Amino acid sequence: MSAGSFSPLFGFVPNSPTEYALYMVIIWVPYVVLIIYGQRLQGYAIMADVGRYLSRLKVDAEKSRGNLLSYLQKKGVAGDGQRTMEGMIESVTIFPENMDPVGIVKKMELIIRTQEDHVKLRVREIMKSANDLERTAAINMLEISSALDMIYRVVRHYYLITKKSPDGIYLAAQLQMILPSLVKQADAYLNAMDALEKLLPLGDAAGPLTVSRWMKDSQKYDYDDETVYSEMDYKGRRVAVIKAKGPGASVGKVDDALANLLNGPYSGSSAVIMIDAALKLEGERSGDVAMGMGAAIGGIGTEKFKIEDVSTKLGIPVYAVIIKESLLEAISVMTRDIAEAADQARKTILSLIETQVPEGGKAIIIGVGNTLGVAQ
Description:
By secondary structure, the protein is of the alpha/beta class. It has helices spanning 17-74, 80-88, 104-126, 132-164, 168-198, 206-216, 254-262, 302-314, 327-330, 336-356, and strands spanning 220-222, 227-234, 237-244, 271-279, 289-293, 318-325, 362-367. The protein is 56% helix and 12% strand.
């Protein structure tokens, strides 16, 4: 077969049997290798990529632990106190059995409240010379450290299982797809620790920030240690405003405060209006304000259930005003766009009161979110 029968490879045309054999080896050996070992080579590449992301998660988990211990040291906690707090990072919360869902909300609420009360008690014992703001910051830093530690350990678990499994490439590919966004979230959580230490508002404080202006010059009433409310008159309407007590890092018990007011001095209210930060879709602008219906509150669902339950029993409509932001913005220091959106949110709420609450009527506004750095 003549050399003219071949198309040149990068300008090379075989002119002898030896060159022809070399030509065939160069062309076909890689194909054979890829056919036989292609999936395995791809698996090695994917696992190497997952391993790099896992290393970043490990660094974030270790840094968060170090930041927590450093903060405790600044507040005069050392030795046994630091070891106790470090041991709490890996504490677990076991949710109740949901095979029979009747009563599960009360079970979940009891477990969560018990866990929260336990952590507060231990932190109070450890940080005896600290004030309440410093303790709430430490509790939130502990939650971040616990979350990052759990993320790292879960990813490491699946990474090691993938390495042991003969079909691990499929699990590795799924890990590879979700890890970039997971690492971004972990980085944001880590950055939030600095905001907690300096008592800077997070993006999640959009709700409390919106209502705080109305509470500034009003008489405040404590519902409990973490929740506060005030009253104001707006164009002949009696309005109660609820938020978590700031400027500590707390979300309060706004659901319980709402139920207390609706079954007490604000029985017969015409509307409940909730303002909260909400996740925006890609392509939407951070800080956009939207209005809708329903309970605007996150968490595991117990607070939302109680708000919906009491409002349904009393026949009171619940309206939602949301400030759009990304997940990363919600757990990072509040941006200018989100802070400025609070003014537009206030206008939307007042418009709702004018249209949905008759003169002489009553309404309740709830600022939902972590009130770190936002007083009342």
